[in-house]
Task: inverse folding
């Protein structure tokens, strides 16, 4: 924002006092100034969060996005609640960098807990200021005024004024207390208190999703549907051997395709055409001589062998209590368990699509990335533009489930548009999305525990050995984080890190850590790592929660009882207890000992986690066909405590859908690759769960704690699916599954080995 | 360059095509500016591009545009509106099925065809009809419920 308006707020910010204290302000000055133009978009400005339109519509500016889980609706409910208008009267603007502050885009399932809370606060503050304005206007003390659907009135309704009359079409020029940070770190504080749960009218209601009619009737535009005058369609051209770069490009090979043209910028290669189909055909027809490249990937079959043998680049114990080394020495019995989790793809329903229009020293990008702001910063760096000259407009699009290839496509579109001087739409193809999306990295999770003579766990260790999750520095805010940057020679920006489980269990001596190994390929790797939905939850919890089950079995304890023995936090304990009660859990150690000779055996398994302040236990009931290795998923019971619930039905849907998604990752998904390249490039070679893999019954039990702050729900339950199923298989058969996915071949092999 | 007339959602539309093998999907999206059939795989494996041709759910990414002239093409937007929803659309909203919604044409148009064939389908029939569709958000169970709801209301 280059416009400087000289007013009180601009003065304060330009002198660096980003934190504006209003504690003493009874606003004696020309009280509540309103302005005709929206003040600059800054964190310390109330109108950056909430405005009122001439017809009384309340607009909430949400610097995150709705990836399909109903956040737009939840935000509208929270804002309507705090500002006291009908839910229908709230419009939510999401992820437009010219209109909404950078609140981090979609990230870590904090859409409600972080972004929602900031908008609740600023909505409450707007209401407070409007009541003060009404008080002056009506000549009635503020405490004698109430609000009903945007109308401020006296108790007898004799005197009244609407929000629209007070400020509609103008903007409150008011400062709020901002911590000076953007993205996930943005915090804003206000004078107005939030409503108490007992007073909620809209929060807690299962209102229908605002976005669904447009989707169901086929009228909602997605990013794929952006069409600009003069827009060219582009397709990227990528090598079939990772690391190869174009040496020679035979432009004549596409001369028969109307309007088709090659674009080559260093090692980035694309074709463009006026008509989309001609771009598709040109990408297929283009003859390219690629450089010799020998990536020498280990192949997916030998990946875990590779990880075991690979040198450790960095090792870190992120959490320690007591002294593990001393504790394990005192043990009379040691239990150890390794668990392997494969490389997985985001495998979005639609391959990435983005549109960019770069001209006159400015750029506009239309994108459905989860991180539109980061994408804009990345594009600014790639194009050499100041940040404020790049506008990112987020639009609905395919679900991305993390940092998929959308950030790459957006950067490609921007680079091509700048080069061509015309708007460009990039649509990745199916093979490109599966081969070239940044991947959820493979890992081996190993646990070790020491028991004393009474069978008590006195020492516990959990370590993941894995590729670093920071090949892309996890986001897409830097040019080096996207393929376009890597193919045009920018220096890489790697980091070394993995993740650990939350230490809910109270063992006397414990340590949780990770070890990273070198990447398989430094630059423009199809196996580069990044966050995939519930980053590191499924791989780590598959290991840690299967291992907890091993410990229960080793001590002949019931798996629920065993967990309760070491869980002390009441919300941890409630989640486990309520899941067990809802399922009808019969207490006994695993495995069930009466199914040994049966071809078909049924078992139940539980897995638990705490993530932030979300507490979840999942029980799976599974039928195992010993001869074929096929697993039938009979029932899931999920007890879920997210604190305050904004929209119970939508929350249940979010949990239900993600348990199905998690089932796909547990049962079938694995990126395949050979020495040269990813080979799982369509829905047959990268299979995902179809209708025939659907669990027969999913019961979700919401634990209601309206007084607790809301936490997140968008990805926390899915990480429990692999361990819950694996533990159920152990209960049925006495055999541990140690590698995801649980394909029939692999289950059969595990049963035969035992 | 040849001219092809397509009847889409009840409207006859004429377009110039330079390749008779161009998939119908590109004619609908690129030439006619329709949005709801979506590109998912281009391989007939996922269903995101589904439209109805003469009442049958068809993958438009695998259907040459020259093969559908004089036939009735219906997209998701052509089966109902908010004011007059198709019973399947109404059920989809009642059950709040979708998350991202990118796959929706395949699921709803397949459900419409199924209910015309089997007005009271069994769970097995529904699962069978849906089994070659993909949804990455995990709406499978919700879609099953929605079809049952639609069949009860029909």
Result:
């Amino acid at each position: 924002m280059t416009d400087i308006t000289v007013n009180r707020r601009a003065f304060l910010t330009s002198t660096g006092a980003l934190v504006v204290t209003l504690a003493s302000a009874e606003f004696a000055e020309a009280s509540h100034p309103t302005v005709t133009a929206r003040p600059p978009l800054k964190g310390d400005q109330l109108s950056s969060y909430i405005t009122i339109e001439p017809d009384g519509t309340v607009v909430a500016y949400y610097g995150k996005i709705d990836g399909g889980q109903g956040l737009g609706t939840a935000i509208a409910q929270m804002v309507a609640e705090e500002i006291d208008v009908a839910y229908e009267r709230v419009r939510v603007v999401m992820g437009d960098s010219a209109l909404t502050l950078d609140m981090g885009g979609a990230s870590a399932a904090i859409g409600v807990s972080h972004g929602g809370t900031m908008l609740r606060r600023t909505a409450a503050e707007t209401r407070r200021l409007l009541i003060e304005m009404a008080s002056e206007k009506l000549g009635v003390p503020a405490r004698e005024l109430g609000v009903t659907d945007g109308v401020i009135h006296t108790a007898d309704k004799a005197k009244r004024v609407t929000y629209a009359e007070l400020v509609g079409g103008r903007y409150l020029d008011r400062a709020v207390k901002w911590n000076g940070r953007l993205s996930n770190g943005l915090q804003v504080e206000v004078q107005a208190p939030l409503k108490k749960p007992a007073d909620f009218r809209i929060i807690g209601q299962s209102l229908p999703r605002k976005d669904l009619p447009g989707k169901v009737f086929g009228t909602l535009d997605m990013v794929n549907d952006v069409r600009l005058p003069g827009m060219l369609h582009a397709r990227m051209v990528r090598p079939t051997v990772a690391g190869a770069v174009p040496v020679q490009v035979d432009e004549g090979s596409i001369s028969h395709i109307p309007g088709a043209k090659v674009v080559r910028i260093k090692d980035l290669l694309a074709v463009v055409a006026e008509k989309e189909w001609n771009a598709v055909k040109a990408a297929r027809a283009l003859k390219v001589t690629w450089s010799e490249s020998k990536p020498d990937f280990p192949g997916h079959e030998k990946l875990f062998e590779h990880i075991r043998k690979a040198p450790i680049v960095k090792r870190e114990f992120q959490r320690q209590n007591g002294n593990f080394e001393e504790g394990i020495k005192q043990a009379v019995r040691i239990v150890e368990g390794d668990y392997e989790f494969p490389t997985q793809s985001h495998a979005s329903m639609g391959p990435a699509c983005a549109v960019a229009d770069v001209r006159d020293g400015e750029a506009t990008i239309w994108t459905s990335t989860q991180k539109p702001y980061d994408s804009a910063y990345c594009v600014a760096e790639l194009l050499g533009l100041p940040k404020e000259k790049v506008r990112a407009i987020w639009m609905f699009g395919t679900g991305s489930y993390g940092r998929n290839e959308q950030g790459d496509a957006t950067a490609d579109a921007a680079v091509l548009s700048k080069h061509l001087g015309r708007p460009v739409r990039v649509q990745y193809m199916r093979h490109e999305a599966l081969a070239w999306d940044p991947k959820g990295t493979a890992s081996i999770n190993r646990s070790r525990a020491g028991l004393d003579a009474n069978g008590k766990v006195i020492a516990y260790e959990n370590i993941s050995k894995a590729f670093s999750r920071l090949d892309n520095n996890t986001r897409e805010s830097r040019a080096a984080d996207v393929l376009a940057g890597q193919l045009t020679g920018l220096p890489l920006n790697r980091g070394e890190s993995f993740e650990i489980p939350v230490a809910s269990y109270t063992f006397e001596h414990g340590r949780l850590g990770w070890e990273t190994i070198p990447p398989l390929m430094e630059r423009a790797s199809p196996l580069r790592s990044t966050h995939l939905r519930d980053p590191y939850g499924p791989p780590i919890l598959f290991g840690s929660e299967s291992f907890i089950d091993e410990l229960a079995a080793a001590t002949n304890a019931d798996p629920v009882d065993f967990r309760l023995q070491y869980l002390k936090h009441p919300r941890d304990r409630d989640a486990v207890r309520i899941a067990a009660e809802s399922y009808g859990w019969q207490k006994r150690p695993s495995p069930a000992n009466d199914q040994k000779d049966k071809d078909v055996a049924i078992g139940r398994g539980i897995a638990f986690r705490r993530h932030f302040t979300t507490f979840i236990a999942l029980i799976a009931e599974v039928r195992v066909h010993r001869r074929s290795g096929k697993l039938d998923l009979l029932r899931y019971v999920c007890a879920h405590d997210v604190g305050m619930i904004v929209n119970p039905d939508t929350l249940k849907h979010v949990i239900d859908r993600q348990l199905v998604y998690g089932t796909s990752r547990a049962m079938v998904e694995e990126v395949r690759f050979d020495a040269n390249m990813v080979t799982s490039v369509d829905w047959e070679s990268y299979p995902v769960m179809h209708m025939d893999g659907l669990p027969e019954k999913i019961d979700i039990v919401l634990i209601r704690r309206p007084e607790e702050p809301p936490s997140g729900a968008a990805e926390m339950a899915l990480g429990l699916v692999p361990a819950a199923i694996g533990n159920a298989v152990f209960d049925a058969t006495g055999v541990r599954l140690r590698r995801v996915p649980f394909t029939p071949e692999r289950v059969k092999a595990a049963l035969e080995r035992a | 360059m040849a001219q092809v007339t397509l009847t889409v959602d009840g409207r006859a539309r004429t377009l110039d095509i330079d390749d008779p093998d161009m998939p119908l999907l590109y004619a609908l999206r690129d030439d006619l500016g329709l949005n709801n059939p979506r590109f998912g795989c281009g391989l007939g494996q996922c269903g995101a591009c589904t439209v109805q041709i003469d009442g049958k759910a068809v993958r438009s990414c695998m259907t040459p545009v020259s093969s559908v002239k004089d036939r009735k093409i219906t997209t998701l937007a052509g089966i109902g509106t908010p004011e007059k929803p198709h019973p399947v659309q109404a059920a989809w909203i009642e059950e709040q099925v979708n998350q991202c919604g990118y796959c929706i044409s395949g699921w709803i148009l397949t459900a419409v065809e199924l209910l015309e064939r089997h007005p009271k389908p069994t769970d097995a029939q529904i699962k069978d009809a849906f089994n070659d569709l993909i949804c990455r958000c995990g709406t499978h169970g919700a879609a099953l419920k929605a079809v049952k709801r639609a069949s009860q209301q029909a």
About this structure: The radius of gyration of chain A is 28 Å. Chain A touches chain B through 64 residues (CB under 8 Å). Residues 171 and 425 of chain A are 36 Å apart (CA to CA).
